[in-house]
Amino acid sequence: MFGKLKSLFILEDKNETIKAAQKAEENQKAIEKEQPTVSAKDITVNIEPQHIPKSGKPDSKFIDILLKAVEKDNLEGFDYLEYKSSLQSLSGMDMDEETRYKSSLAMAQTMGASADKLIKTAKHYLSSLNKEKSKFQDALKAQKTKQVTSKESGIKEIQKGILGKKNKIAELQKEIERDTKKMESMKAGINKAAAKVQKTSDNFHYAFNVVTGQILADIEKIQKYLK
Predict the structure, then answer these.
(1) Scanning 42, 166, 182, 195, which has the fewest C-beta atoms within 10 Å of its C-beta?
(2) Coil, helix or strand for 177?
């Protein structure tokens, strides 16, 4: 059954794949313009908002997950999936799209199906896929918290630490500038004090030389004149 599902939803025709993507984009634009419904004859189908990424590709891993969710919720009897299979079997025939859809419906009616039932069961599978999307988003949110949010918090803590260190550096810089000025002031005071001490020393020794010089001169004269 799973292989059959893949053959129904994995389009080998690239043009059909592009059309499917464009249809999803058109639905999204309709939602943005506040036109949340499309009509098929007398039946109205609600279109749920879709996230249309600007870039990406249909990863086979995710395709398998989504189709397995559809397979798990497969309804009994002839429903949308069987109708889609019928559409695919007519794709190679020379008929326009409208004729192909009407011809497949004619066959579906012989199996007890109707347009109403086909749309109802198609919406059932959309619901299954939306549940799978919700599970994916929850898992993605957990991964984001683990891989992104928690690390962002770590970055904020580091930034906070860096800011604190910068503030500490700024305060230390102020202290250095303050201590440098104090040191320069002390150096100036030391130089002034040293000059004063030197002057005192010089004055003392000059006076000492004056006094001792007189005594030495007298000793010399006593020895010369009195002996």
Answers:
(1) 42
(2) helix
CB 149 within 8 Å of CB 141: no
**Chain segment 15-24, per-residue pLDDT in tens:** 555 556 556 6
Question: What's the pLDDT band for 43 if we cut at 50, 70, 90?
Answer: very low
Kindly give, in sequence order, each residue whose CB lies less than 8 Å from that of residue 121, ignoring residues fewer than 6 positions away.
75, 79, 80, 81
Question: How far is residue 17's CA from residue 9's CA, in Å, rounded to a whole number?
Answer: 9
Per the structure block, which two tokens stand in for 209? 């030389």
Q: Tokens standing for 66?
A: 């989504």
Sign of CA dihedral 98, 100, 106, 112: negative
Residue 65 CA, chain-centre distance (Å), reads: 26
Beta carbons of 70 and 125 less than 8 angstroms apart: yes
Tell me the HSE value of 204 on the side-chain side, using a 13 A CA sphere: 6
What is the distance between the alpha carbons of residues 23 and 85, in angstroms, rounded to a whole number? 20
Q: Which two tokens stand for residue 4?
A: 């059959």
End-to-end CA distance of the chain: 148
For residue 48, report the phi and psi dihedrals to the nearest 5 degrees.
-80, 145
Q: Which helix (H) or strand (E) holds 73?
A: none
Token pair listed for 130: 């939306």
Phi, psi (degrees; rounded to nearest 5) at 37: -135, 155
Q: What is the mean pLDDT of residues 55-65?
A: 78
Can you tell me whether residue 43 is helix, strand or coil? Answer: strand
Secondary structure (DSSP) of 98-133: HHHHHHHHHHHHHTT--HHHHHHHHHHHHHHHHHHH
